[in-house]
From TrEMBL:
Belongs to the peptidase M16 family. Gene3D superfamilies: Metalloenzyme, LuxS/M16 peptidase-like. Pfam families: Peptidase_M16_C, Peptidase_M16_M. Keywords: Hydrolase, Metal-binding, Metalloprotease, Protease, Zinc. GO terms for biological process: proteolysis. Residues 177-217 form the Peptidase M16 middle/third domain. GO terms for molecular function: metal ion binding; metallopeptidase activity. InterPro entries: Metalloenz_LuxS/M16, Peptidase_M16, Peptidase_M16_C, Peptidase_M16_M. It comes from the Eukaryota. It comes from Columbina picui. Residues 2-151 form the Peptidase M16 C-terminal domain. This is NRDC protein. The keyword Zinc applies.
Length: 218
Protein backbone atom coordinates (compact mmCIF):
# COMPACT_ATOMS: atom_id res chain seq x y z
CA UNK A 1 0.00 0.00 0.00
CA UNK A 2 2.88 2.40 0.76
CA UNK A 3 4.34 1.77 -2.68
CA UNK A 4 0.99 2.26 -4.38
CA UNK A 5 0.36 5.46 -2.45
CA UNK A 6 3.77 6.76 -3.52
CA UNK A 7 3.02 6.03 -7.17
CA UNK A 8 -0.40 7.68 -7.05
CA UNK A 9 1.05 10.76 -5.36
CA UNK A 10 3.82 11.08 -7.94
CA UNK A 11 1.49 10.64 -10.91
CA UNK A 12 -1.61 12.59 -9.87
CA UNK A 13 -0.58 15.19 -7.29
CA UNK A 14 0.13 17.84 -9.95
CA UNK A 15 -3.39 17.66 -11.39
CA UNK A 16 -5.13 20.87 -10.23
CA UNK A 17 -8.37 20.78 -8.29
CA UNK A 18 -10.68 23.45 -9.68
CA UNK A 19 -13.01 23.17 -6.68
CA UNK A 20 -16.12 22.76 -8.82
CA UNK A 21 -18.92 20.50 -7.55
CA UNK A 22 -19.72 17.26 -9.31
CA UNK A 23 -22.21 17.98 -12.14
CA UNK A 24 -25.73 16.75 -11.58
CA UNK A 25 -28.40 16.03 -14.17
CA UNK A 26 -31.06 14.94 -11.68
CA UNK A 27 -33.46 17.64 -12.88
CA UNK A 28 -33.67 15.97 -16.33
CA UNK A 29 -35.88 13.06 -15.34
CA UNK A 30 -37.98 12.59 -18.49
CA UNK A 31 -35.52 11.62 -21.24
CA UNK A 32 -38.04 9.30 -22.90
CA UNK A 33 -41.10 11.50 -22.66
CA UNK A 34 -41.76 11.15 -26.38
CA UNK A 35 -44.48 9.43 -28.45
CA UNK A 36 -41.79 7.24 -30.05
CA UNK A 37 -41.12 5.43 -26.79
CA UNK A 38 -44.68 4.08 -26.48
CA UNK A 39 -44.56 1.98 -29.61
CA UNK A 40 -43.88 -1.52 -30.88
CA UNK A 41 -40.73 -1.78 -32.99
CA UNK A 42 -40.09 -4.76 -35.24
CA UNK A 43 -36.41 -5.45 -35.96
CA UNK A 44 -35.26 -8.09 -38.43
CA UNK A 45 -32.52 -10.14 -36.72
CA UNK A 46 -29.29 -11.26 -38.37
CA UNK A 47 -29.58 -14.80 -37.04
CA UNK A 48 -32.68 -16.94 -36.72
CA UNK A 49 -34.12 -15.97 -33.38
CA UNK A 50 -37.37 -14.53 -32.06
CA UNK A 51 -37.01 -12.17 -29.12
CA UNK A 52 -39.54 -9.93 -27.38
CA UNK A 53 -38.03 -7.06 -25.39
CA UNK A 54 -40.11 -4.82 -23.12
CA UNK A 55 -38.36 -1.77 -21.65
CA UNK A 56 -39.52 0.67 -18.99
CA UNK A 57 -37.94 4.08 -18.38
CA UNK A 58 -37.98 4.64 -14.62
CA UNK A 59 -36.94 7.44 -12.30
CA UNK A 60 -33.22 7.22 -11.41
CA UNK A 61 -32.53 4.39 -8.96
CA UNK A 62 -28.78 4.72 -8.40
CA UNK A 63 -29.32 6.40 -5.03
CA UNK A 64 -30.97 3.15 -3.86
CA UNK A 65 -27.84 1.06 -4.40
CA UNK A 66 -27.98 -0.27 -0.83
CA UNK A 67 -31.47 -1.68 -1.54
CA UNK A 68 -31.07 -2.57 -5.25
CA UNK A 69 -34.83 -2.69 -6.01
CA UNK A 70 -34.34 -3.49 -9.70
CA UNK A 71 -32.12 -6.45 -8.84
CA UNK A 72 -34.83 -7.69 -6.49
CA UNK A 73 -37.54 -7.36 -9.15
CA UNK A 74 -35.39 -9.03 -11.80
CA UNK A 75 -34.91 -11.98 -9.44
CA UNK A 76 -38.69 -12.39 -9.14
CA UNK A 77 -39.32 -11.94 -12.86
CA UNK A 78 -36.52 -14.35 -13.80
CA UNK A 79 -37.73 -17.11 -11.48
CA UNK A 80 -38.17 -20.37 -13.40
CA UNK A 81 -39.95 -22.61 -10.88
CA UNK A 82 -43.55 -23.70 -10.59
CA UNK A 83 -46.01 -20.87 -11.07
CA UNK A 84 -43.46 -18.53 -12.65
CA UNK A 85 -44.20 -16.57 -15.80
CA UNK A 86 -41.58 -18.57 -17.72
CA UNK A 87 -43.06 -21.85 -16.52
CA UNK A 88 -46.45 -20.75 -17.83
CA UNK A 89 -45.03 -19.67 -21.20
CA UNK A 90 -43.12 -22.93 -21.58
CA UNK A 91 -46.27 -24.93 -20.99
CA UNK A 92 -47.80 -22.99 -23.85
CA UNK A 93 -44.70 -23.74 -25.97
CA UNK A 94 -44.33 -20.00 -26.44
CA UNK A 95 -40.96 -19.28 -24.83
CA UNK A 96 -37.56 -20.84 -24.25
CA UNK A 97 -36.02 -18.33 -21.85
CA UNK A 98 -36.83 -15.13 -19.98
CA UNK A 99 -34.71 -12.70 -18.05
CA UNK A 100 -35.08 -9.15 -16.80
CA UNK A 101 -32.99 -6.53 -15.13
CA UNK A 102 -30.83 -3.44 -15.29
CA UNK A 103 -27.17 -3.61 -16.26
CA UNK A 104 -26.27 -0.81 -13.81
CA UNK A 105 -24.13 0.76 -16.51
CA UNK A 106 -24.04 4.44 -17.35
CA UNK A 107 -26.52 3.99 -20.17
CA UNK A 108 -29.02 1.87 -18.24
CA UNK A 109 -28.70 3.63 -14.88
CA UNK A 110 -27.60 7.19 -14.15
CA UNK A 111 -28.76 10.36 -12.40
CA UNK A 112 -31.38 11.02 -15.09
CA UNK A 113 -33.20 7.70 -15.46
CA UNK A 114 -32.99 3.93 -15.01
CA UNK A 115 -34.03 1.34 -17.56
CA UNK A 116 -35.65 -1.96 -16.69
CA UNK A 117 -36.02 -4.53 -19.44
CA UNK A 118 -37.59 -7.96 -19.75
CA UNK A 119 -36.45 -10.12 -22.65
CA UNK A 120 -38.29 -13.27 -23.77
CA UNK A 121 -36.76 -15.73 -26.23
CA UNK A 122 -39.74 -16.97 -28.23
CA UNK A 123 -40.40 -20.19 -30.08
CA UNK A 124 -41.85 -20.06 -33.59
CA UNK A 125 -45.26 -20.59 -32.02
CA UNK A 126 -44.56 -17.91 -29.44
CA UNK A 127 -43.71 -15.45 -32.17
CA UNK A 128 -47.19 -15.98 -33.60
CA UNK A 129 -48.63 -15.12 -30.18
CA UNK A 130 -46.23 -12.40 -29.06
CA UNK A 131 -49.12 -10.09 -28.11
CA UNK A 132 -50.38 -12.75 -25.70
CA UNK A 133 -46.83 -13.24 -24.39
CA UNK A 134 -46.53 -9.53 -23.71
CA UNK A 135 -49.89 -9.59 -21.96
CA UNK A 136 -48.79 -12.46 -19.69
CA UNK A 137 -45.56 -10.64 -18.76
CA UNK A 138 -47.41 -7.41 -17.99
CA UNK A 139 -50.01 -9.26 -15.91
CA UNK A 140 -47.22 -10.90 -13.92
CA UNK A 141 -45.60 -7.53 -13.24
CA UNK A 142 -49.03 -6.21 -12.27
CA UNK A 143 -49.40 -9.05 -9.78
CA UNK A 144 -46.03 -8.20 -8.22
CA UNK A 145 -47.04 -4.56 -8.04
CA UNK A 146 -50.42 -5.33 -6.50
CA UNK A 147 -49.09 -7.70 -3.83
CA UNK A 148 -46.01 -5.67 -3.06
CA UNK A 149 -42.91 -6.80 -1.16
CA UNK A 150 -44.73 -7.33 2.13
CA UNK A 151 -43.11 -9.56 4.73
CA UNK A 152 -46.49 -11.02 5.69
CA UNK A 153 -47.75 -12.01 2.23
CA UNK A 154 -46.88 -14.98 0.07
CA UNK A 155 -46.40 -14.93 -3.67
CA UNK A 156 -48.23 -17.42 -5.88
CA UNK A 157 -45.05 -18.78 -7.49
CA UNK A 158 -43.12 -19.58 -4.34
CA UNK A 159 -43.57 -20.74 -0.76
CA UNK A 160 -41.02 -18.27 0.56
CA UNK A 161 -42.04 -14.95 2.01
CA UNK A 162 -40.74 -12.04 -0.02
CA UNK A 163 -38.46 -11.05 2.82
CA UNK A 164 -37.05 -14.56 2.77
CA UNK A 165 -36.45 -14.12 -0.96
CA UNK A 166 -34.61 -10.86 -0.30
CA UNK A 167 -32.47 -12.61 2.31
CA UNK A 168 -31.75 -15.41 -0.16
CA UNK A 169 -30.58 -12.91 -2.79
CA UNK A 170 -28.48 -11.12 -0.16
CA UNK A 171 -26.73 -14.33 0.90
CA UNK A 172 -26.05 -15.43 -2.68
CA UNK A 173 -24.54 -12.07 -3.59
CA UNK A 174 -22.46 -12.10 -0.40
CA UNK A 175 -21.11 -15.57 -1.20
CA UNK A 176 -20.26 -14.56 -4.75
CA UNK A 177 -18.47 -11.49 -3.42
CA UNK A 178 -16.44 -13.32 -0.79
CA UNK A 179 -15.46 -16.21 -3.07
CA UNK A 180 -14.98 -14.35 -6.33
CA UNK A 181 -11.91 -15.05 -8.42
CA UNK A 182 -9.13 -12.51 -8.53
CA UNK A 183 -9.63 -10.09 -11.41
CA UNK A 184 -7.15 -8.14 -13.47
CA UNK A 185 -5.72 -5.38 -11.20
CA UNK A 186 -6.16 -2.65 -13.81
CA UNK A 187 -9.82 -3.57 -14.34
CA UNK A 188 -10.36 -3.68 -10.59
CA UNK A 189 -8.87 -0.22 -10.05
CA UNK A 190 -11.00 1.15 -12.88
CA UNK A 191 -14.10 -0.37 -11.27
CA UNK A 192 -13.24 1.13 -7.89
CA UNK A 193 -12.72 4.57 -9.45
CA UNK A 194 -16.21 4.35 -10.94
CA UNK A 195 -17.62 3.25 -7.58
CA UNK A 196 -16.05 6.31 -5.93
CA UNK A 197 -18.31 8.48 -8.07
CA UNK A 198 -21.47 6.59 -7.10
CA UNK A 199 -21.28 5.26 -3.54
CA UNK A 200 -20.48 6.36 -0.01
CA UNK A 201 -16.87 5.87 1.10
CA UNK A 202 -17.62 2.80 3.20
CA UNK A 203 -19.24 1.12 0.17
CA UNK A 204 -16.55 1.67 -2.48
CA UNK A 205 -15.59 -2.02 -2.46
CA UNK A 206 -19.05 -3.53 -2.10
CA UNK A 207 -21.67 -1.04 -3.29
CA UNK A 208 -22.04 -2.52 -6.77
CA UNK A 209 -22.49 -6.10 -5.54
CA UNK A 210 -24.02 -6.43 -2.08
CA UNK A 211 -27.54 -5.82 -0.77
CA UNK A 212 -27.51 -3.98 2.54
CA UNK A 213 -31.06 -2.89 3.38
CA UNK A 214 -34.57 -4.33 2.98
CA UNK A 215 -36.95 -1.43 2.26
CA UNK A 216 -40.31 -2.60 0.88
CA UNK A 217 -41.42 0.98 0.09
CA UNK A 218 -38.49 1.38 -2.33
Amino acid sequence: LDTLEKWVTEIFSEIPNNGLPKPSFGHLTQPFDTPEFHKLYRVVPIRKIHSLNITWALPPQEQHYRVKPLHYISWLVGHEGKGSVLSFLRKKFWALALYGGNGETGFEQNSTYSNFSISVTLTDEGYKHFYEVAHVVLQYVKMLQKRGPDKRQKMLFCFFLLYRIWEEIQKIEANEFHYQEQTDPVDYVESLCENMQLFQKEDFLTGDQLLFEYKPEV
